[in-house]
């Protein structure tokens, strides 16, 4: 915004105007800085170059912006989807128009005017700040985590003291203080990006959080070990900041900071609500319209990480009384949830005051969100072909069939050898049988590899970029080979059992294996478990 004031940047110009490489348009529309600052540029989530323990993983912002460019999955300005890449891209643009490195720019233009002497984006920490740095912990009883290197540094590498964050908040509460002209600060704080009404939405850089009837502008920040949040209440000249050095048990840090914001507002800015519940019969009908499986807009859609959509479904369920529940989103707040519809397709939690709202088109709910995340994430109804409600049980059944088929091969061989029995198949029928069993083992090997990768990724996101590239490339080659190979050879085996008039049990087993192969092949290609690109 300082560069906007200086006339060097225009929030509504194509960002390619400021870059030395091109970001192609999506649906004929270019990205603007306004899209970037409101997280509506349309980028999918990218973690390949995100967090590392190795300082050598750092690279200049200009290089990062080129090599880490994610796919555009939404037309700009249409869909909130938080993007660390977009934040780093904005910083890259500031570097280019200011002629200063990002670290130098922030130190000179933000930290120095505010006397923020214990703050830096530099990584690793400069020597004078190392002794002040808190240790981060992933779990009770574990050693402290190494210092986390955020590769897109402007998106999360800030190390700051609580006192310095107080100085930063005061500057914004003073209409920009020494950082911005009051009119620029007002534009930054008061802008409301289009979204699902009446939910919270993005300002410019900050986002809304309505606590009770009080509007706050806020922002959170998370690495693996550290979890921070700030709220500004401009109406009351008040700011609140919290930072925790552990995710806590079962992700308790999320619930703690959510509860802090709500309880703080309840105590110091009490308010009342005069909600009028919707007629129970209409509310029950609206709840049934909302029910189903949904996919978050912040996520991967064009690479293998889209598999996480299958492993972490977002369900809206309805009880016998027509009341909604959102089990997968309960960790966004502390305490029980009690959703009551207060106007058409808007529900309020009577405990926290948060709202859920849905967008309806042609009599069908197409997307919804919840106040806590609505500025930067909405949830779209999951397509039938990717719906975990049927895919997960189908996948479990398919894997069970493949395991049985794979194990039956050596077991039958041992039994035949033990009793000197001949095998019923011969020639091409025998070859088809053996190949289908060999590909069954390849499928299980691929599944084991993906499971191992997900386990490592869940415990250390830094492992996904670089250290595990070899495994990812291997799995993306092996998986389509194994699933398609199983489909072809199991179908060949099935045709042989029919042609040769084999007993019904053998034909049934062959049919089940073909069905299992179909499910696995569908998952392979629907969730992009193939390819060679290194941006994911």
TrEMBL record:
InterPro entries: AmpC-like, Beta-lactam-related, Beta-lactam/transpept-like. The chain crosses the membrane at residues 390-409, 438-457, 477-496, 508-529. Keywords: Membrane, Transmembrane, Transmembrane helix. Pfam families: Beta-lactamase. It comes from the Bacteria. SUPFAM superfamilies: beta-lactamase/transpeptidase-like (SSF56601). Residues 1-256 form the Beta-lactamase-related domain. This is Beta-lactamase. It comes from Pacificimonas flava.
């Amino acid at each position: 915004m300082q560069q906007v004031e200086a006339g060097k940047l225009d929030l509504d110009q194509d960002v390619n105007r400021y870059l030395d490489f091109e970001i192609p348009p999506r649906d004929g529309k270019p990205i603007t800085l306004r899209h970037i600052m409101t997280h509506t540029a349309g980028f999918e989530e990218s973690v390949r170059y995100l967090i590392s323990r190795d300082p050598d993983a750092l690279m200049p912002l200009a290089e990062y912006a080129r090599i880490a460019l994610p796919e555009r999955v939404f037309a700009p300005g249409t869909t909130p989807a938080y993007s660390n890449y977009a934040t780093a891209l904005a910083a890259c643009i500031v570097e280019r128009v200011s002629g200063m490195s990002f670290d130098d720019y922030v130190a000179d233009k933000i930290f120095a005017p505010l006397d923020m002497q214990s703050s830096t984006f530099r990584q690793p920490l400069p020597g004078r700040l190392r002794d002040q740095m808190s240790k981060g912990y992933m779990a009770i009883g574990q050693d402290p985590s190494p210092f986390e290197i955020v590769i897109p540094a402007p998106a999360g590498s800030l190390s700051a003291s609580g006192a310095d964050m107080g100085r930063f908040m005061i500057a914004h509460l003073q209409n920009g203080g020494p950082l911005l002209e009051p009119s620029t600060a007002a534009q930054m704080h008061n802008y409301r990006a289009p979204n699902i009404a009446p939910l919270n939405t993005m300002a410019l850089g900050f986002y809304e959080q309505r606590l009770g009837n009080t509007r706050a502008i806020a922002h959170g920040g998370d690495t693996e070990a550290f979890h921070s949040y700030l709220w500004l209440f401009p109406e009351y000249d008040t700011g609140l900041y919290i930072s925790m050095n552990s995710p806590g048990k079962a992700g308790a840090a999320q619930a703690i900071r959510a509860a802090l914001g709500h309880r703080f507002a309840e105590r110091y800015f009490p308010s009342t609500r005069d909600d009028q519940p919707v007629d129970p019969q209409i509310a029950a009908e609206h709840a049934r319209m909302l029910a189903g499986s949904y996919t978050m807009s912040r996520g991967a859609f064009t690479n293998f990480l889209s598999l996480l959509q299958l492993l972490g479904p977002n369900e809206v369920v309805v009880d016998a009384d027509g009341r909604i529940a959102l089990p997968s989103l309960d960790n966004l707040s502390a305490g029980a949830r009690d959703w009551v519809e207060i106007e058409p397709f808007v529900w309020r939690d009577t405990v926290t005051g948060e709202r859920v709202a849905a967008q309806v088109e042609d009599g069908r709910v197409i997307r919804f969100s919840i106040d806590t995340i609505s500025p930067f994430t909405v949830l779209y109804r999951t397509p039938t072909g990717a719906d975990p409600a049927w895919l997960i049980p189908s996948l479990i059944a398919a894997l069970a069939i493949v395991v049985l088929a794979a194990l039956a091969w050596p077991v039958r061989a041992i039994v035949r050898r033990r009793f000197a029995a001949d095998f019923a198949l011969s020639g091409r029928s025998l070859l088809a049988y053996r190949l289908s069993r060999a590909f069954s083992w390849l499928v299980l090997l691929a599944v084991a590899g993906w499971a191992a990768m997900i386990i490592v990724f869940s415990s250390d996101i830094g492992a996904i970029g670089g250290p595990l590239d070899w495994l990812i490339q291997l799995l993306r080659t092996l998986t389509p080979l194994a699933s398609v190979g199983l489909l072809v050879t199991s179908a060949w085996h099935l045709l042989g059992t029919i042609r040769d008039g084999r007993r019904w049990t053998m034909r049934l087993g062959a049919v089940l294996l073909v069905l299992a192969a179909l499910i696995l092949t569908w998952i392979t290609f629907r969730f992009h478990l193939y390819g060679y690109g290194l941006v994911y």
